[in-house]
Amino acid sequence: MAKQFKLQWPVDRHTITQYFGENPQIYAKFNQAGHEGLDFSAAVNDNVYACAAGQVIDVRPNDGNAYGLYVRLQHRVDGAIYQTIYAHLSEVLVAEHQSVSAGERIGLSGNTGHSFAPHLHLTLKLIGAKTSGYPDGVVDPLPYLREEEIPAPSDLTIYTTDQVRLRAKPTTASAHLTWLDDGEALVVLGDAGAARARVGERGQWIQVQRADGMNGFVAAWYTQLELPTPAPPPHEETEPEPELPDTLAVYPTEALNARNGPSTGSSRIAIVLPHDPLEIVGDWDVALAKIGDRGEWLRVRLPDSRRGYVAAWYVQLSPGPTPDTLLTVYPTEDMNMRERPTVRAKLVGRLAHNTPLTVHDDPERARVLVGRYDEWLYVETPEGEWGWVAAWYASDVMT
């Protein structure tokens, strides 16, 4: 019977940030063997959907309980009774005793209760079941979660006509996954003929895959079938222009987050310091006009050669002071180093216990984060490799 019950994804972002049973050292104080559900990536006020058809049996306010504001649904399947709990919400959109359909919107994600950052926590209970180390009924939701069905890549490639968002679903109301560059090549997933007919059409969406394998939906009215070939400039006899520098660099006014898109809602990819040169990517005149303006963003090349975005109102044209000493931390056990500050990000290295790591951040700010759950540190290894490590597995002394 249990195998017949399936869960739909409860949020648009199909990214799990903490699995069942993880981090036993954190949950031991709650007399649990580990994390008792699944955590899904979600921003504040992202849509939360019912994983299966059922009835609302409890709506709990944010009254100091660990789950914060949450909804509990009950599902009856072939004589078995399941319950799903959707925790840390910012708003509930259903009422007790209400019947809901699978995929129906039941709330908005948030950061209430015992939560360190916005996300959705999902607990699954099977009444009568027993999992060692957990409260009665609690089971791992992962085996019940439906696999995401992604169409196969086609032989059609399309190109963006502007910087545009890649979204989880074909609607502007769905979660923003990442920014796509102007002119970025995207492989169409599924029916190439149907996609070709949608290119350039307002209100239409196309499911695509980036070169890095990330897939989602792009607004068809920001796509084209070919990249236009720029016309050669007309030949004119002109005086030779003075030579310009090869690069234009700006510098942060303080320790600053670099992101993968031009908004504070985009993912952090690095932390840059006042002495770090950030090379401008794109039109220098446009970039210079943005410096100091709140709400404007600059696309830059980071010290590790990756490209990202920084807030234009936190940069200047001259370098700031080099800190006397950056904080050094040490893994409290063998640990992973990742491309971005999330447990689902790509691994870029494996670090041994007590490897000295230089934290690329303001030393005082970084010191506060050391040892804190759900915080991340941007570090450099002795070999010169860069990445993010979990602050809760780091210490400022060797262990």
How large, in whole angstroms, is the Cα Rg? 24 Å
Any idea how many domains? 4
CATH topology of the largest domain: Glucose Permease (Domain IIA)
Count of beta strands: 31
Please tell me the CATH architecture of the largest domain by its name: Distorted Sandwich
Give a short account of the largest sheet: 10 strands, antiparallel
Poorly predicted ranges: none
What is the residue-mean pLDDT, rounded to a whole number?
88
Distance between the termini: 48 Å
User: So how many helices?
Assistant: 4
The CATH superfamily of the largest domain is: Glucose Permease (Domain IIA)
Proportion in helices: under 10%
Q: Which outline best applies?
A: globular
Tell me what the structure shows.
It is globular and about 85 Å long. The chain has helices spanning 24-27, 192-198, 284-290, 363-369, and strands spanning 16-18, 38-41, 47-49, 54-60, 69-77, 80-92, 99-100, 105-109, 119-126, 138-139, 153-160, 164-167, 176-180, 185-189, 205-209, 215-219, 223-224, 249-252, 256-259, 268-272, 278-280, 297-301, 307-311, 315-316, 328-331, 335-338, 347-351, 357-359, 376-380, 386-390, 394-395. Strands 1, 2, 3, 4, 5, 6, 7, 8, 9 and 10 form a ten-stranded antiparallel sheet that branches. A five-stranded antiparallel sheet has the order 16-15-14-11-17. 6% of the residues lie in helices and 37% in strands. The chain folds into four domains: 2-144, Glucose Permease (Domain IIA) (Distorted Sandwich); 153-224, Roll (SH3 type barrels); 249-316, SH3 type barrels, CATH 2.30.30; 328-395, Roll (SH3 type barrels), CATH 2.30.30.40. It has 399 residues and is mainly beta. Strand 19 and strand 20 (268-272) form a beta hairpin.
